Amino acid sequence: MHATTTPAGTHARVASDQLTLLLALVPYLLDQGQVTVTEVAAHFGLTAERVRALVSLIALSGIPGETRQYLHGDLFDILWDEFETNDRIVLTHQVAIDDSPRFSAREAAALIAGLQYLSALPHNADTDAIASLMAKLTRGASAPPTQLAVAQRDGGTTRNIVQTALSTGMQVEFDYLNARGAHEHRVVDPLRLESVDSDWYLRGWCHLREAVRTFRLDRMSDPRVSGVRLSAHPVDVLLPDTLFQASADDVDVRLELATAALPLLADYRPERSELVDSGARTRTTLRVAHDHALKRLVTSLAGIVTVLEPAESRRAVLDWAEAGLAQYGGDEQSPTSKD
């Protein structure tokens, strides 16, 4: 009889697979706090026996201490009574993982604010995943992150109503905040729904203007499907290449920003640009339809753009900033304008 031998490569693959499982299992257990063997098996697609073997192996794993020996404090440990009696896994001591780099409180706050903004966009349906990631960032930061208030946008209701009108061939009605800040009731034959950057737009035939118009969904209120069939009109209409379209009633606003940041205003067609501070900064003029558009622009470029004139526009931006600061309920004093 000949003894059966296992190739060395097979041992290497088994060891590699085991290490991969452990590297995935340990963070999972830390994140869950306490979890049953059955839940772990279902999550990783393993048998309960395999999970128990891996947990036992975790308890024998660690890093050598200063004495270069594996003492008790150098190894992972679990709550053995829970594991053996209730088949529940609870890590009571961990090593090495706490030494990994962590986000600072400021970094975590910035990431969480970004995720809050993303979760408010209509096309981010899987908000549970975003909420889970925000919770992990909060737990994993080196200190409690600063709480930031992020204004919520349309959560998808308006988009769903417009999509229903598109799919059924019906008109849609809504109240709309137009470019000059006035509310108007619109009846529209929806033609196309699409997003540009972070904003959603409806292109459709407006019965009030008797022409094709573009509507931003976050400016709509009380949208509803009217139940009236679409009218007959051309449908192949494209959005303009630029975000801002000039008109005779626009206001000229003078801005200052770093010259390197000037390309950020390209969509707004800056005019009469001049270099200051030996070319490090640029003063330029934008034509805006109303102060609401200016507030959105300055907010999106916070700390980059300074409004110079007119005084009414500076005051509108200052009031906008003060209103945002007031949401935090603190005693901070807002800056005063210098007109």
UniProtKB/TrEMBL annotation:
Domain of life from the UniProt record: Bacteria
Domain WCX: 250-323
Residue span, PafC HTH domain: 17-139
Domain annotation WYL: ranges: 161-225
UniProt cross-references to Pfam families, sorted A to Z: HTH_PafC (PF19187), WCX (PF25583), WYL (PF13280)
Name of the featured protein: WYL domain-containing protein
Upper taxonomic lineage: Bacteria, Bacillati, Actinomycetota, Actinomycetes, Micrococcales
